[in-house]
Design a protein that fits this description.
By secondary structure, the chain is an alpha/beta fold. 42% of the residues lie in helices and 19% in strands. The protein has helices at 5-22, 44-56, 79-88, 99-108, 145-159, 175-191, 206-215, 227-231, 233-242, 267-282, 304-309, 316-321; strands at residues 30-36, 65-71, 93-95, 114-119, 138-142, 165-170, 194-199, 220-223, 247-249, 261-265, 298-303, 324-326.
């Protein structure tokens, strides 16, 4: 029996879809939303790793992937409006690395899958019900940043012998930053350290935060995770140098740019793993069924040249534990 032309086209289309599926290639175009609290430039290398990984899994922009990018440029108050734009764009999945971006999306949708990569405490900030069973439409990678706060205090005190007054630079509008602040106060109290809270909500207020640290005679500073410190790290580095203040950062690339030290999970790997989760969701997985991943390795990076400039001698105990020492 001869096939009609229309039937032939339908059969060929189905056969092509089966072939693509068999080869692991998605047979349609997907729409990915990106919502970030900081600037595009501040996280360029991370997003490059994310999209490279996604392309390796079969989703390439310009081929079968359309990407809607929205950056708040450090203005958290813009996230709600940007999230609304992504909902209107009818994206299939949203990649929202930091906690404020996820919370902005969750206000508008409990159905669009959302993947994060930089949440310091997904349960404590209300992103998921539990790490093993996130539930609803959110999952991703935890940095365990809040749990690392006591260790970070210990490390900066080891670097700056006799440090008893330690500042924390953070944006109190961010739920994750508030959790970090609370943990720092508890850990400081337990170890006899005074925590000096230096709040900043924008680039314009960072200088005032450093003036506060100077008035309060801070011996050292920890810059918490968040768009504030990441997007404005050039200013933070400049003020730290000008005030000769030893600083521990929470992003591993900062010591390479002149910062004293950092202790954190590998941020690039967090973004790569997030791409794997986006791939799974594109292929049919439900975000609520994908357990939140936690890092198994944390990196200590030290810039010995900066230490010398600050008049510090890096203890041998830190050098032996460092994953990377920059001279």
């Amino acid at each position: 029996m001869l096939l009609k032309r229309r039937d032939f086209i339908v059969i060929c289309g189905v056969a092509l879809a089966w072939t693509l599926a068999a080869r692991g290639q998605p047979p349609r175009t997907y729409r990915l939303g990106v919502l970030f609290a900081g600037t595009a430039a501040s996280s360029e290398a991370y997003f490059r790793a994310f999209f490279e990984t996604l392309a390796g899994l079969g989703f390439a922009e310009g081929k079968n992937l359309v990407v809607e990018r929205r950056f708040a440029d450090g203005r958290i108050d813009r996230l709600d409006a940007l999230a609304a734009e992504l909902v209107a764009a009818k994206v299939d999945v949203v990649f929202a690395p930091p906690t404020p971006a996820v919370l902005a999306m969750r206000k508008l949708s409990h159905t669009i899958p959302i993947v994060f990569s930089l949440s310091n405490d997904p349960v404590g900030t209300g992103l998921v019900k539990s790490l093993s069973r996130p539930g609803e439409n959110v999952t991703g990678m935890s940095t365990m940043g809040t749990e690392l706060v006591p260790k970070r205090i210990e490390l900066i005190r080891e670097m700056v012998r006799g440090a008893r007054r330690i500042g924390v630079l953070y944006d109190s509008r961010e739920a994750s930053a508030r959790l970090n602040r609370d943990m720092a106060v508890r850990a400081g109290s337990a170890s006899g350290v005074t925590i000096i809270e230096a709040e900043a909500h924008s680039r314009e207020t960072i200088s005032a935060a450093f003036a506060l640290l100077k008035r309060e005679r801070a011996d050292a500073l920890i810059v918490f995770e968040g768009s504030l410190g990441l997007s404005n790290r050039d200013l933070v580095l400049s003020l730290a140098s000008r005030n000769r203040l030893p600083v521990l950062y929470t992003y591993p690339e900062v010591p390479a740019e002149g910062g004293l030290m950092s202790y954190t999970a590998n941020t690039t790997e967090q973004y790569r793993r997030a791409a794997v989760y986006v791939d799974k969701i594109f292929r049919g997985a439900k975000p609520g069924d994908l357990p939140v991943e936690q890092p198994t390795k944390f990196e200590l990076v030290i810039n010995r040249k900066t230490a010398v400039a600050l008049g510090l001698t890096v203890p041998q105990s830190l050098l032996l534990r460092a994953d990377r020492v920059i001279d």
